[in-house]
Design brief:
The protein is of the alpha+beta class. The chain folds into four domains: 141 residues, no CATH class; 129 residues, 2-Layer Sandwich (Beta-Lactamase), CATH 3.30.450.40; 54 residues, no CATH class; 147 residues, Histidine kinase-like ATPase, C-terminal domain (Heat Shock Protein 90). Strand 12 and strand 13 form a beta hairpin. The chain is elongated, with a radius of gyration of 43 Å. The two termini are 67 Å apart.
Amino acid sequence: MKKTYEILQEAHLRKEHLAPLWDISVSMLALLLATLLGYLFYAVGFTEANIITVYILGVVILSVVTTNRLCSLLASVGSVLIFNFFFTEPRFTFRFVDPGYYVTFLIMFFASFLTGTLASRLKENAAQSAEAAFRTKILFETNQLLQKEHETTDVIAATAGQLTKLLKRDIVMYPAESGRLQEPLLYPTGDDCDEDLFTENERATADWVFRNNKHAGATTDTLSDAKCLYLAIRVNEHVYGVVGIYINERPLDSFENSVLLAILGECALAIENIKNAKEKEAAAILAKNEQLRANLLRAISHDLRTPLTSISGNASNLLSNYERLDDDSRTQIFTDIYDDSMWLINLVENLLAVTRIEEGRVNLNSTTELMDEVIAEALKHVDRKSKEHIIRVHSEREFILAQIDAKLIVQVMINIVDNAIKYTPEGSVIEINTRECGSMVEVSVSDNGPGIPDEQKPHIFDMFYSGANKVADSRRSLGLGLSVCKSIITAHGGTIEVKDHEPKGTTFLFTLPGGEVEIHE
């Protein structure tokens, strides 16, 4: 289809520049060949009807290959005259002795003219069909290309490529942003670039089109001294850019103009859809952030009251009754204050982590670390109630290295181990296992507590989700710890999951990238 249209375009160029000379040359050649073939038929004894058929065939061929219908008429008249001159008695004169030749010549003329006219119409219909098919193909391709793009710059580039393919002209695109045109983008048909397409006059014409939502430039009555024809990329009154088509003294025909407008319409719709999608996404993110803030404030106002009330109450008790309290009572009060303070500190760390994650500021400071040391550091900061549990640490090899941000992974370990301590009864066993798994390091934290119901597992890493289980001290969890863990592990390129621990309990398993020892010689 593309080749057919290119042939039609070449024929169109010939029509503009070489049509008279081409038509005359082809007409003379066709009549000459028909005459030579007629001589051959005459020499071998064929009838005059066969020779007349040769001339009619020549007129049909002329109608197909020439660009002007007048050629068919002139060729029909010429065929009659040449046939009379060369093949009727007396030969080599324009006289004839048989009156029946009047009818013969008349029939020959009308047969030649009618068949030539029909051939010309068939050629025009074929050209129109090819143009319509090519137009449909270009529009279909454009629609498919633009649907795949998700950025305005990609839509602009795809549109310019389709216009270059269709028009065989240099294209200048002016994307619009924040109510003004940006720097022009040139899409040439060849390697040469006309610098005159970037003059102040061309830019001023494009700006006028952008402000007025009308076409201007070459071949128009507005700012016609421009080298390009400028049109707005628009949907109704919204202009998303301006396109310039290099005219170069060759105006667009009606077919090119109609396809151009259709493609620009597709481009504007694609840009508008991208804009609407981004606005919708931004609105969804804003709504999500607002919901997160509301949930966070509600959870903090409710759940921080218990430890703060406990701290202030114990502190007031110490101030008022310090001398009357025995050592065991003082120690217990100090312990309660310390436990509540550590709970608040861990909560603040998770809140800060949530803030960084939501703002996309999780910056990893990765180094090669021994996993045993990271786990040991984390266990120093877990809930004081860990003394009521049995914590076992096992490593597959003596030295297992990981490429991690140690501070963040310590926070992950604290959150997971604290979670196991809070939701398992006193005396439960918590096992931490580390092993190498290909290029990754696998860490699992298992307990033999009541476990997590299957319906809660899909939501266990959701922010603010704490499930139906209650903490042993009746203090609700904000549901931040495991969500923070998942974000940190994902930022490291690892995975985290929860599964049942046989015969009972829960296992949290996560992976981290393995590390290698660097030897500096």
